[in-house]
Amino acid sequence: MEPFTDDIYIKTIDYIEFWVGNAKSFIKCFLQPLNYHPVAIRRTEKRVQFLLVNSPQLAYFKIIDGAHLESTCFIVTAATSELDTEFHNMRQAHNGDFIKSIAFNCTDVDLCFDRAVAGGAKPVQQPCSPFQSIRTATITSPFFDVDHVFIRRTLQLTQHQIHNPLMLFPDFVELSRTMPNTFSKTQMPSAPTTLSLDHVATCVKNGQLMECIKWYNQCLGFKLMEIIKDGDVPRDNDDQKLIESENYFNVSVGEDIGLRMAVISNQPASMVTFTLPSIMWVISEAAVGGKGQVEQFVKFNGGSGIQHLAFLTNDIFKAVDYARHNLMEFIEAPDYYYNNLSKREELKKVLSHMDMTVIDDLKTHKVLLDSENSSAPDAKESYILQIFTKPICDTPTFFFEVISRENALGFGKGNIKALFEAVEMSQHRELNEIREVPRE
Ligand SMILES: [Fe+2]
């Protein structure tokens, strides 16, 4: 079997497909606030699908090598018939909307498919060419009901067609215009200039972390994320040994809230040039008998799955303003989190160099700060800012994250503990305040 090499590999995440109860509502509530807009539609006998890209201006896009966009697209699918039992049963099993498939742009569909099946993946759709110059195949992933699609396009496009992302999805029909925004332009902050996919975060049951890493290594060629620092020579980590502090983290918060987190990717990250891999895949494993967010996700999702998608922006405050004005709901860190920031040892360096207006912006926007995994030589300029939305359903399942990176490759390990403690502390205070109210 051909191994994954420099010539045969997974390049990018091409599109991600949601299965939802109401496609129009889902798009307006969750994807438009993140500056993703519907541009095309596809109707079948029992389903409707919308295609979304991260700007309403199609001319903004450029198709690279006749194959893919620089940014990930979204497909939002809903059933339009009660007879679509496959769709309804799956949504019910997941207690609501969920990610059904993640499609990877690859260099050779047939070889990637064969390699994945030999590695243990189950075939769903054998390699085929639904359109000229488009080759695709589908396998199951290790996550409950989630498929992985391989796609390779070799389109010959004119200069005009290069700027039309619809050329990549020939079975979709262009929408006459994007859904109108309900806010007037004077009320609306301007849209963030960039908001692209940063990482995919998944949750597995206790004891399945290593198995999941092994699956992605054998089936897709992903490896534990390696960070190349100045002078480093990339090492061959084929043995995929989990080394604590290097490629997995134990986040211990109380006895039953902890989790174990590892990150895999399709290529190494570089601190020298600060280049992120095009795919960063976070896997969190619940603690033994845990009652934390990972365990809750697995319980309500009906099994392991995609817990959140993080979008990278170069201006998190602008992105959050825009999303909030579009009625996106975020988890709001209590004041205790910000008052306690300077007590977090590893942040002292960052905070002491930070402009006071940025710290004020953090508080007003309820954005979180973390310097975890900031291996730049000048640590004062090395941190991440992040914020999480509330779950999109009524159960603690899927949500979104918005993240910005200042020379840091972390994922917010420090915030899991800090946010938990801050919420606990404010609830404790509120309880005391209630107790202190004198009885009539
Ligand atoms: Fe994340």
Rg of Cα set: 22 Å
Main β-sheet, in a few words? 9 strands, mixed
In DSSP terms, counting alpha (H) and pi (I) runs of 4 or more, how many helices?
10
Which strand order do you get reading across the main beta sheet?
A: 6-7-8-5-1-4-3-2-9
Care to count the β-strands? 20
Count of all domains: 3
Uncertain segments: 178-186
Give a brief outline of the structure:
With about 450 residues, this protein is an alpha+beta fold. About 25% of the residues lie in helices and about 30% in strands. Bound molecules: fe (ii) ion (FE2).
Provide a descriptive summary of the structure in words:
This protein has 440 residues and is α+β, with helices and mostly antiparallel strands. The protein has 3 domains: 10-174, Roll (2,3-Dihydroxybiphenyl 1,2-Dioxygenase, domain 1); 186-195 and 313-440, 2,3-Dihydroxybiphenyl 1,2-Dioxygenase, domain 1 (Roll), CATH 3.10.180; 197-309, Roll (2,3-Dihydroxybiphenyl 1,2-Dioxygenase, domain 1), CATH 3.10.180. Helix content is 24%, strand content 28%. It has 10 helices and 20 strands. It has helices at residues 23-31, 85-93, 109-118, 209-220, 293-301, 316-325, 335-339, 348-353, 356-365, 413-436, and strands at residues 10-19, 37-43, 47-53, 73-79, 98-106, 123-131, 134-140, 147-153, 173-174, 196-204, 223-224, 227-228, 248-251, 259-265, 269-270, 280-286, 305-312, 368-370, 383-388, 399-406. It has a 9-stranded mixed β-sheet with strand order 6-7-8-5-1-4-3-2-9. Strands 10, 11, 13, 14, 16, 17, 18, 19 and 20 form a 9-stranded mixed β-sheet that branches. Strands 12-15 form a two-stranded parallel sheet. A hairpin with a 7-residue loop joins strand 13 and strand 14. The longest helix is centred in the C-terminal third of the chain and has 24 residues, at 413-436. The protein is globular, with a radius of gyration of 22 Å. Residues 178-186 have low confidence and may be disordered. The chain binds fe (ii) ion (FE2).
